[in-house]
Amino acid sequence: MTEANQTSVRIQTLGKLTINQKVVKQSRPLELVVFLATCQGDAARELVENALFGEEASSSAMSNLVQRARGLGFEIQSIYQRYELRTPVVVDAIELERTLKAGDLERSVQLYGGPFFPQSVSPFAEDLRGYFEENLIQLALNQQDSRLMFDVMKRVGMDPRLGDAILASTTQNMHSVLCQAPMRGLGWSPRPIKAVS
């Protein structure tokens, strides 16, 4: 279940791991909960195993992980080779995916507190981490807002595409200002001049 209501548990996965603003040290059981949340609260056992363990899943690994997630206060049911998350949750990563799909770069930058499950090496975490970073970069490049491009670069790290776009934008703005400066000195009120790239 991932619907927001008054009894939903808030989970932060971007940059740091928290449950209702309390830092969590056990990332693996939280990863199970978040994976189920991204699957609308229900997923086949094999899908969960592949996402969280890849080829390395032992027979007892899933049972152990489910017990640890229950220990964090989440209700997870195992029914006919499927897992169901019964605890309503609100996950920052799911909110980020929605804002990215909506093209809301400013809100996406606010939500992105850092890498998704930063210490995890599961296929699920690595794939989603890369997905978020690439989509933030692409959205910033498409919108060509140098302030937001710089904010994205501060959060995801140096990306040559962002660096080049910021430099090009800064150069164009500087060229336009320099071209207009002599006219302002003469008391003219010039029209905006577009820089040639």
List the helices and strands and how they pair.
Layout: E1 9-12, E2 18-19, E3 22-23, H1 27-38, E4 42-44, H2 45-53, H3 61-71, E5 76-79, E6 82-85, E7 89-91, H4 92-102, H5 105-111, H6 123-143, H7 146-156, H8 160-185
Parallel strand pairs: 1-7
Antiparallel strand pairs: 1-2, 2-3, 4-6, 5-6
Helix pairs in contact: 1-3, 4-5, 6-7, 7-8
From the structure above, extract its key features:
four-stranded mixed β-sheet; elongated; 7 strands; three-stranded antiparallel β-sheet; 11% strand; alpha+beta; 197 residues; Arc Repressor Mutant, subunit A; 2 domains; disordered C terminus
What does this molecule look like?
The structure is a single chain. The termini are far apart. This protein has 197 residues and is α+β, with helices and mostly antiparallel strands. It has a four-stranded mixed β-sheet with strand order 3-2-1-7. A three-stranded antiparallel β-sheet has the order 4-6-5. The longest helix has 26 residues. The chain contains eight helices and seven strands. It has two domains: 83 residues, Winged helix-like DNA-binding domain superfamily/Winged helix DNA-binding domain (Arc Repressor Mutant, subunit A, Orthogonal Bundle); 80 residues, no CATH class. The radius of gyration is 23 Å and the shape is elongated.
